[in-house]
Amino acid sequence: MTLRAPVEPMLAQAVEAVPGPGVLGELAFEQKFDGYRALLFTRTATGEDLVLQTRRGRRVQNRFPDLVSAAEQLPDGLVLDGELLTWDAAAGRLSFEGLQRRTAARGPAARRLAAALPAYFVAFDILQQDDIELLQHPYRQRRLRLEALFTTLRLSAPWTLVPMTTDLLKAEQWLESRAQIPGIEGLVVKPMNQPYLPGHRGWYKLRRRDTTEAIIGAITGTLVRPQLLLLGRRDPHGTLLPTGRTAPLRPEAARLVAENLTPADRTHPWTGMRFASAWGSRATLDVTLVHPDLVAEISADTAVDRGGVHRHPVRYKRLRLDMSPEEAPLFATADS
């Protein structure tokens, strides 16, 4: 059966450590890029046009005219699974902010942004080739087909084959070193004999995490029983700017934090500000502002926007009562 968009992509579940082979058998380790998940459908034998589909099924090929043009070198009847990235030539780095701009633009704006923020497609799976669906083939075979495709066609930018290894030691080295490069945030672990299961969380993702500090500016819950901590950092002018929130506190941690909280006064810089319940969400949190004199040590993954804004909830580790807010990392230079 020939695949047609939309196809629900296979997903990964977050884990704290690299899973052992166990019943999973031999494992493949891929570098995890910080971009937008996308499926690329080239033209079909029946004349259907190219489709670039997001994880949620939205068609965005009109946002990426550079990729559409480059896809002329790809064969018909091909479906690739991968990650969309953009390169900021002025900054000399991958840019998640640029990717957001590109997915929102169309028409002349999309063409202008394609020149300033060229897109790349990092392929990590092949779901169809020559109009033949490959979902039931094990990952091992699909990977060989994907490698052969890149070799035979001599594909280069904007097409990139995701680095993969079956060597656990090499994967751990990637996690500790290569993951520090902006745009690479960890590993995806895949059983070599596993078929492609649309919508199923059969893969594993392991994000590299860093320990750092931030200022507690607000909470959810109550001063007696805080639930989440809303965090911030000061810019070079001393203004406290929001940088994210924690996952729910454990009872003992909540008790210790509560013992040190002080209600905010009217001079709090976040007065009147609204906070999203999740990155990119329109739902807001019911928060209580607190005096921003407490510093928390946190563990965070590398999905960080400019200035150190965390796109995922961070983990609270402990209070840094030995550190003043002025000693916490600055917003403008955090995690850069």
Automatic annotation (TrEMBL):
Pfam families to which the protein is assigned, alphabetical: DNA_ligase_A_M
Ranges of residues in domain ATP-dependent DNA ligase family profile: 121-234
Superkingdom: Bacteria
Catalytic activity: ATP + (deoxyribonucleotide)n-3'-hydroxyl + 5'-phospho-(deoxyribonucleotide)m = (deoxyribonucleotide)n+m + AMP + diphosphate
Keywords (A to Z) from UniProt: Ligase
InterPro entries (UniProt xref): ATP-dep_DNA_ligase (IPR050191), DNA_ligase_ATP-dep_cent (IPR012310), NA-bd_OB-fold (IPR012340), OBF_LigC-like (IPR044117)
KW Ligase (keyword) present: yes
GO molecular function: ligase activity
PROSITE patterns: DNA_LIGASE_A3
Similarity comment: family membership: Belongs to the ATP-dependent DNA ligase family.
Protein name per its UniProtKB record: ATP-dependent DNA ligase
Species in which this protein is naturally found: Streptomyces amritsarensis
Classification of source organism: Bacteria, Bacillati, Actinomycetota, Actinomycetes, Kitasatosporales
